Amino acid sequence: MQDALALKTRPLLPGFGVEILDIDIASADREMLDAVIDTFHRNGAIVLRNQSLTPAQQVAFTREFGEPEGNVREEFTHPDFPEIMIISNKIVDGKPIGNPEAGLNWHTDFQYGVRTALCTLLYGIETPAVGSDTLLADLCAAWNALPEEKQQQIDGLRTHFSYQLFQEKRGVALTQEQKDAMPDVLHPLVRRHPADGRKAIWGLAVGPVKRLVGKDGEEMDEEESIALIKELIAFCTQEKFVYAHKWQPGDLLVWDNRCTLHTGTRFDFDKYIRHVHRTWVRGDIPF
Q1: How far is it, in rounded angstroms, from Cα 83 to Cα 237?
Q2: Do 131 and 269 form a contact (C-beta atoms < 8 A)?
Q3: How many angstroms separate the CA atoms of 184 and 153, rounded?
Q4: What's the pLDDT tens digit per position in 72-94?
């Protein structure tokens, strides 16, 4: 396999993420694809600019990371490629073609699944000149910066995630089939990365979380749980831990859900169009 160090890169943040230069994913050979995937696993996020991908090519590249994860809600999936979720405020024939509000809070994709998402790929087709940035927080750097006393307090806690609760808060009624497909799960608040064992403050979210579970297996008070989660989110999303991606058409951003939080920023819906395609990859059970 080609040594990943042969790739031309530049860091997104010191110690986190890289932009990979001068690669056309649609025409990359096997050795180049292997080098890109290896670079991803070691860095937490990669950016590839000036891409021109068809939906089929995006799904094919997604498969280089693993098996694409499906979408529980299908109303905004691509008509020919259900692996692709369309995120857009574009209106065609009087109807929205995508979800305009996706991802506008700090979270990690598919945390509420039994097997969480390994990575997310976001491909920009139309991107606003102002706003709609994607912010990525480096959760390994945040863990390393956390005082030892706080590390000892939270290591071993688990987060109770509920997809049903998450959708109820948003006013979405799930079918029984959807409820059965997405049962409540417990995941570690601090997880290890399977590539090299590095630790990350991981089980962080507000919307899909019921409460934390203590090291003794007892459920913590809901108010206390959410307060601690909010405290940790505030710590992890300090500017020094966050990469802000300024979108250009043709950008492909891939982030590692095993060691990051992310959010989108708002933009002027009346002035700009955002049209991006999202795919994600089925991961493992966090440990």
Answers
A1: 29
A2: no
A3: 24
A4: 778 899 999 999 999 999 999 98
133 inside domain: no
Does one domain contain both 115 and 30? yes
Q: What would you report as the CA-atom Rg of the chain, rounded to the nearest whole angstrom?
A: 19
Which residue stretches of 170-212 are H helix?
Answer: 176-181
In Å, what is the CA distance from 273 to each residue of 50, 87, 88, 100? 19, 11, 7, 10
CATH of the domain at 161: 3.60.130.10
Q: How many domains does the chain have?
A: 2
Tokens encoding 33:
């694809």
Same-domain status, 13 and 147:
no
Helix and strand numbers, DSSP H then E, in the chain:
7, 17
Q: Which domain holds residue 94?
A: 4-127+246-258+267-282
Ramachandran angles phi, psi of 167, nearest 5°: -70, -35
Dihedral pair phi/psi, residue 254, rounded to 5°: -125, 125
Do 230 and 96 belong to one domain?
A: no
Instruction: Please state the rounded mean pLDDT for residues 22-50.
Output: 96
Would the pLDDT of 3 be above 60? no
272 vs 275: CA distance, rounded Å? 10
CA atoms within 13 A on the CB side of 221: 4
